[in-house]
Amino acid sequence: MASLRGMQQPELSKKLFKLIKSENHAIASYETAGRERIAIASQLSDWGEATNDDSISDISDKLGVLLSEIGEQEDVFAQNLEDYRSVLKQIRNTESSVQPSRDHKSKIADEIAKLKHKEPQSTKIVTLEQELVRAEAQNLVAEAQLTNITRQKLKQAYDMQFAATIERAEKQILLARHGRRLLNLLDDTPIVPGDARPAFEHADQARQILNDAEEDLREWQPNLEPVHSQATGMGSNLMPTEGSTVAPSVTGGESVMTRDDSPAQSRVAPSEGQHFEQGQLDAPPVPQHARAGEINFADSQYAHSETA
Questions:
Q1: Residue whose C-alpha is closest to residue 231's, from 116, 125, 149, 118
Q2: Sign of the C-alpha dihedral, residues 61, 66, 71, 72?
Q3: Per-residue pLDDT reduced to its tens digit, 153-172
Q4: How do residues 94-140 score in pLDDT, each as one tens digit?
């Protein structure tokens, strides 16, 4: 069915349709990677406990907590990409709406050319030429709406994607740095046969590293260069509303994009209308579920070394 829908797409929107579909596969891959990372983190914790080495058990358990949180960031990233993808759909839908206007204009022009060749004296030519003038005027409006929505939504969509990429990268770097701190607590001094390893004395430090990671995640804030926009004066019909007269659209005053094409409330960016309020694409806010940055021992499957 997905392939059939692709075949039915208007020529104008086929390329973006393909891009959006490919992005959907990429998002699914990020979700899968996140789940697998969490599963691997659990396996690391289980293995460490099975070594019967208190040091390895404690360190591997806490590494598992950090690695699991790194996996969670993949899932957050995938959700944010879905929001960016929804914005691209608005461009695709507008392209689909403009295609009939282009086809109608071309069809009339072709009919006129055929009549002039076969029946140059036909009175129908005058009627068709008048119809062509109207079709060209309608198409002119549609093309203006298309270029307006394309430029605005392209900037908005990739602002969201890049903000999400930066968030994931910075949070994963933060977690990885704390993971390296944990590794320094593990004594890897070689021993000779018969010697016993000293007891692990860094449990409190290891626990504090996790607390530090949790606090850093909670306090993380985006620091992004704003993406500026001059689209603040565009009305709901995708035409300028300030200092100019808005021409009627192809659909009788409404935008060629349907009203229910707007995406769900974005997790990375404000909703449409807020994002461009100050003449720029403001730095997207931190998702609520990611803002907490909690690494909870009690709710974690890695809690065994804390309660042992």
A1: 149
A2: positive
A3: 999 999 999 999 999 999 99
A4: 999 888 888 888 899 988 898 888 888 888 888 888 888 998 888 89
> Which DSSP string do the residues of 168-188 spell out, in sequence order?
HHHHHHHHHHHHHHHHTTS--
Dihedral-angle region of residue 273 (phi above 0 means left; psi in -120 to 50 means alpha; beta otherwise): left
Instruction: Supply the pLDDT for residue 229.
Output: 80
Which tops the pLDDT comparison, 295 or 46? 46
Residue 158 contacts residue 91 (beta carbons within 8 Å): no
> Distance between CA atoms of 306 and 308, rounded to whole angstroms?
6
Length of the chain: 308
Distance between CA atoms of 293 and 176, rounded to whole angstroms? 15
Sole residue written with tokens 């689909």 = 96
**Backbone angles phi and psi of 210, in degrees to 5:** -65, -40
Structure tokens given for 51: 């070594």
CA distance 91 to 150: 6
3-class secondary-structure state, position 271: coil
